[in-house]
């Protein structure tokens, strides 16, 4: 489907089980570079599990993960990150005792250091310069330069989301997995967030796979959507096609609020 | 085969009790998420209580048993539940420190009150022969031990199936997250399980004491058997835990038959539980181990730094004082020399626990390895002093790499348990080998340096040598902490996941930090043996490791990385030299009690000020009610200490 040039992340036949429970069921999807791909579905659909399998935090029962054309199924999480896969977390994973600037810088430093014992201890001057530049740029793009010296533990949820985004930005990843990055943001912050995401994709040509419950945001920023329900892919298409799909509507029955936000409910689902 | 029977009988009798202790531990861990390192100490306290009532006060033994099991057990359970409840939201490391602190406190109290001498504990159960199997006499005491073990297990089984609280408890043991969904009131379930758990511990304590001779350390170490049993049950399964205890008992007992006679291996039977513990920790996939309470994020140190004048001024003043010490303290100089050596130990421990958030309960073992290795290098191999010092550091660093292996796989509680097992293994087996201290009681010796003008015999000269090494260590570790590695370590304490998913090879980081920490602890061990001339393995036991952790926690509650190391060394070494009443037992109580307190309040969730304010408010309310004269927070603080101390009563 995707050519080798813009191959971002391809998930092939992925199955994730927790004990007997199937959380992700033979899922296939591809999120190319230079595009914003959405992954949506009701609570417990298996979105986070998919992310964990993609980023290497969880061993899938079967299936393959292909990153930038390379099969990384057997690689560890850090190795995948070094190959260009970055992610954020639904339950944010931040260095809460450190400042915003340190948080953002550490992502780049971690990538530079990798598994090299010497490089883990000290940075070369050149690396350090790169870290400084990347940090400044990431803070700027995410609009949190003013917070640079604040300790993360003292920030609001919205601000923390931006720090997490700035961190993956500074990490210079080619492919980003964002897990509900706008939850906890107010409307204005959310819109700003959408703009940042679009800029990332168009200016830097990176690929984004976005999990999001804010349907308005999803519908406006995504180029393409995948819809999961009970771990299985039930629909794949453009936001407009998704809105119109009866299958998707049926899956979302019971989450009317979400439907309304997406402008689906008034078409007579209830 | 026949000659094995007596060993199997003894093993079954003790194993049944290990299983009982394990059941209590597993039950409380699963329902509260708090792993109680003081479980064995509670057993010890019950045994001592029984001893007092039965032997000193001449109570009829069933009455003494009822009080020390039926009254003391539930009371201890209530106190533990209260403590556990305050801890659930704390960091994993804090929770570990809190229950280790409780262990120190109880054990210190028992030593202080009863003396550290071993006492023979009366065999109060009838020792007459009950019956004979293949010619082996089985005593009534053994029959009763097994019966009580099996009976308690079955009783628990029925309780978990037949009563409402029991059914809720079982659901929680299987899946702690579901506690809120079971419909039972969570508090009742937790209280019930702590009461059962602590009662089981007390029962184990009084039944096992006759076979061990009464000694607080031995009894507290009982918890290790329970650890092993719980590990076999993978921290979840109660039947497997009980079975695990029985297996450990039998294997240890049978091992006695085959190994005790052979030279150098006599320590093995005693270490069966640690071996089981370490093995289980090493082979069980991390995801099979349940996650206890506690969050991983949130290292203690904030980003705030003291103002610049303090940052520059304080080391200058402190440095001037340290340089002047030999002229100020007279004959107490050795105390200060030793204290300086402990600064290195605390700095290296701090690097692991405070900076990178990995609790290691084997730190004294590194110092012990350092001391013994240095003796071999300088006396046996004839290395010059300085070369020996560095070589010792390197060797100990390599031992640190071994301990990093569990650290790569495990974190939080399970790492702490694995290191505890490692420390015990070192203490009981490896230290006794010719590689380290050998089997002589006196241990090994070493001399002070002869470096150019430095005179070997002079205490003052050697003080300055130590001071130089301490300064170098301070500089090295402060630089390390501020360099990239330091940032990674702090990040590791907050969120290992975030580091991994941004590309850091965290296993390498862990190996580096364990090696570095062990290196410096080894150097400290070498300095120590040069200072005191001769060191035996009992100087660096796993109990010392716990004591160090307690002291560092206490000091760390008030101060930063370097300051806390000096403060902890002062508390551990200098303080007792001036107050004759401050014995190791008192220190153990002090550090333990304060570590529990510090754990309760220093974790960001509650700080001293809010606690004082809250206590003040509560006190005010109480005062308003009872119309007593108004008092302020020093009293309140004492109240908390009393509450924490309540565990031992
Ligand atoms: N560690 C785990 N152990 C057992 N089951 C799990 C685990 N993590 C998730 N599950 C289950 O797997 C299913 C998928 O969960 P997942 O978190 O992937 O869903 P999600 O789509 O991200 O949901 P949400 O929108 O609520 O974030 C759910 O039924 C969940 O209960
Ligand atoms: Mg999710």
Explain this structure to me?
The complex is a heterodimer of chains A (270) and B (649). Chain A is an alpha/beta fold and 270 residues long. Chain A folds into 2 domains: 1-84 and 175-270, Rossmann fold, CATH 3.40.50; 94-172, no CATH class. Chain A contains 11 helices and 10 strands. Chain A has helices at residues 47-55, 77-82, 100-113, 117-121, 125-141, 157-170, 187-204, 215-221, 239-244, 246-252, 256-262; strands at residues 9-18, 21-31, 36-40, 62-67, 70-71, 85-87, 175-179, 207-211, 224-229, 232-237. Chain A has a 6-stranded mixed sheet, sandwiched between helices. With 649 residues, chain B is mainly α. Chain B is built from 24 helices and 4 strands. Mean pLDDT of chain B is 83; it is low at 296-303 and 628-649. Chain B has a two-stranded antiparallel sheet. In chain B, helix 2 crosses helix 7 (186-212). The interface between A and B is large, with 40 and 35 residues. Bound molecules: adenosine-5'-triphosphate and magnesium ion. Magnesium ion is lined by residues 47-48, 90 of chain A. Adenosine-5'-triphosphate binds at residues 18, 21, 23, 41, 43-49, 90 of chain A.
């Amino acid at each position: 489907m995707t050519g080798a040039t813009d191959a971002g992340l391809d998930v092939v036949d992925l199955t994730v089980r927790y004990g007997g429970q199937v959380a992700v069921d033979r899922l296939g999807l591809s999120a190319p570079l230079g595009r914003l791909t959405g992954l949506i579905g009701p609570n417990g659909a298996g979105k986070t599990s998919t992310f964990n399998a993609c980023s290497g935090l969880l061993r899938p029962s079967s299936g393959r993960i292909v990153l930038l054309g390379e099969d990384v199924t057997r690689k560890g999480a850090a190795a995948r990150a070094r190959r260009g896969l970055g992610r954020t977390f639904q339950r944010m994973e931040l260095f809460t005792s450190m400042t915003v600037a340190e948080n953002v810088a550490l992502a780049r430093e971690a990538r530079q250091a990798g598994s090299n014992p010497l490089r883990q201890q000290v940075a070369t001057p050149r690396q350090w310069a790169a870290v400084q530049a990347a940090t400044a740029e990431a803070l700027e793009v995410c609009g949190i330069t003013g917070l640079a010296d604040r300790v993360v533990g003292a920030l609001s949820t919205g601000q923390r989301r931006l720090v997490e985004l700035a961190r993956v930005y500074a990490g210079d990843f080619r492919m980003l997995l964002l897990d509900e990055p706008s939850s906890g943001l107010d409307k204005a912050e959310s819109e700003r967030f959408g703009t940042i995401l679009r800029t990332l994709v168009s200016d830097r040509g990176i690929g984004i796979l976005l999990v999001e419950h804010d349907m308005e945001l999803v519908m406006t920023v995504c180029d393409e959507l995948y819809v999961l329900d009970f771990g299985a892919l039930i629909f794949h298409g453009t936001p407009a096609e998704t809105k119109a799909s009866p299958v998707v509507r049926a899956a979302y029955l019971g989450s009317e609020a979400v439907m309304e936000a997406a402008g689906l409910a008034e078409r007579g689902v209830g | 085969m026949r000659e094995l029977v007596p060993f199997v009988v003894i093993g079954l009798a003790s194993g049944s009790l290990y299983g009982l202790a394990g059941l209590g531990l597993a039950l409380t861990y699963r329902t509260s998420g708090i792993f109680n390192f003081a479980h064995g100490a509670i057993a010890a306290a019950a045994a001592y209580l029984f001893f007092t009532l039965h032997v000193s006060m001449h109570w009829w033994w069933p009455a003494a048993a009822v009080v020390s099991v039926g009254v003391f057990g539930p009371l201890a359970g209530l106190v533990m539940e209260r403590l556990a409840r305050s801890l659930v939201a704390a960091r994993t490391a804090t929770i570990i420190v809190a229950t280790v602190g409780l262990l120190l406190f109880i054990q210190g109290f028992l030593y202080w009150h009863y003396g550290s001498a071993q006492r023979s504990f009366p065999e109060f159960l009838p020792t007459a022969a009950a019956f004979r199997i293949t010619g082996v006499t089985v005593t009534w005491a053994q029959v009763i031990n097994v019966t009580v073990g099996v009976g308690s297990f079955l009783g628990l089984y029925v309780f978990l199936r037949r009563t409402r609280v029991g059914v809720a408890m079982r659901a929680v043991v299987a899946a702690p997250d579901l506690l809120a969904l079971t419909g039972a009131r969570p508090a009742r379930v937790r209280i019930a399980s702590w009461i059962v758990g602590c009662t089981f511990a007390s029962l184990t304590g009084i039944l096992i004491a006759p076979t061990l001779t009464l000694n607080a350390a031995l009894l507290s170490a009982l918890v290790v058997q329970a650890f092993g049993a719980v590990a076999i049950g993978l921290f979840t399964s109660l039947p497997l835990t009980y079975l695990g205890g029985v297996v450990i008992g039998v294997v240890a007992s049978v091992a006695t038959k085959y190994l005790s006679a052979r030279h150098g291996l006599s320590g093995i039977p005693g270490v069966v539980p640690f071996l089981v513990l370490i093995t289980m920790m090493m082979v069980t996939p991390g995801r099979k181990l349940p996650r206890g309470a506690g969050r991983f994020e949130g290292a203690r140190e904030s980003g705030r730094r003291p103002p610049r004048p303090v940052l520059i001024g304080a080391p200058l003043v402190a440095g001037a004082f340290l340089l002047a010490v030999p002229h100020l303290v007279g004959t107490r100089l050795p105390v200060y020399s030793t204290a300086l050596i402990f600064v290195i130990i605390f700095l290296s421990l701090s690097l692991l626990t405070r900076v990178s958030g990995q609790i290691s309960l084997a730190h004294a073992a590194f110092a012990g390895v350092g001391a013994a290795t240095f003796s071999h290098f300088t006396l046996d191999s004839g290395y010059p002093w300085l070369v020996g010092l560095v070589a010792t550091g390197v060797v100990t660093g390599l031992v640190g790499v071994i301990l990093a292996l569990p650290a790569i796989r495990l974190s939080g509680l399970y790492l702490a348990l694995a290191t505890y097992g490692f420390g015990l293994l070192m203490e009981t087996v490896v230290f006794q080998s010719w590689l380290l201290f050998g089997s002589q009681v006196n241990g090994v010796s070493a001399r002070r340096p002869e470096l150019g003008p430095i005179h070997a015999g002079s205490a003052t000269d050697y003080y300055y040598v130590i001071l130089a090494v301490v300064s170098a260590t301070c500089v090295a570790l402060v630089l390390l902490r501020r360099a990239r590695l330091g940032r990674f370590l702090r990040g590791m304490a907050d969120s290992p996941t975030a580091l991994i998913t941004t590309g850091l090879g965290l296993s390498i980081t862990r190996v580096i930090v364990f090696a570095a920490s062990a290196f410096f602890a080894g150097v400290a061990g070498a300095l120590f043996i040069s200072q005191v001339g001769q060191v035996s393995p009992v100087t660096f036991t796993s109990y010392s490791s716990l004591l160090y952790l307690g002291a560092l926690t206490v000091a760390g509650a008030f101060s930063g990385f370097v300051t806390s190391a000096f403060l902890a060394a002062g508390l551990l070494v200098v303080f007792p030299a001036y107050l004759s009443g401050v014995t190791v037992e008192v220190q153990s109580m002090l550090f333990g009690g304060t570590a529990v307190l510090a754990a309760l309040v220093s974790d960001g969730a509650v700080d001293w000020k809010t606690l004082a304010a809250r206590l003040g408010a509560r006190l005010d309310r109480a005062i308003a009610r009872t119309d007593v004269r108004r008092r302020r927070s020093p009293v309140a603080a004492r109240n908390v200490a009393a509450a924490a101390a309540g565990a031992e009563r």
